[in-house]
Write a structure and sequence with these properties.
With 134 residues, the protein is mostly helical. The protein contains four helices and two strands; from the N terminus they run H-H-E-E-H-H.
Length: 134
Amino acid sequence: MSDYLKIRLILGVIVLVGVGSLKFCNYSSADADQRAMAHRLVAQAEGYGKASEYYDFLADYAHDEVFSGSYVSGGRYSSGHVNQAQYRQDLFDCMIDKAQEDNSPQVVAALEALQARLEGRPVPKPQQQQPKRR
């Protein structure tokens, strides 16, 4: 193999490693940005001040479950990005499911109300028990 071909091969490998590193950095950056956004969202939920550790746990748990499914890898001429609508829907679905599993109805109601407010839908009213008539 001539020296010219060896140099071209080595440069090709370097370029491939560089492109792969850039793609990974973009994924990692998007991951950190979305995790921070999830925490900012749950901080808006009613009752966050009283149970901030639990809400933050839900944000981290749900982010870990749903982020990779909403990340769209870039192509040759575009970088990767997050499908925001899918991420937010999946994030709330996962947090609500986990809160239901943990038997936390107040958190479920707060997350459903926050999701509705963020989507511009009417906020669901909490179900109240009717007073018993005599």
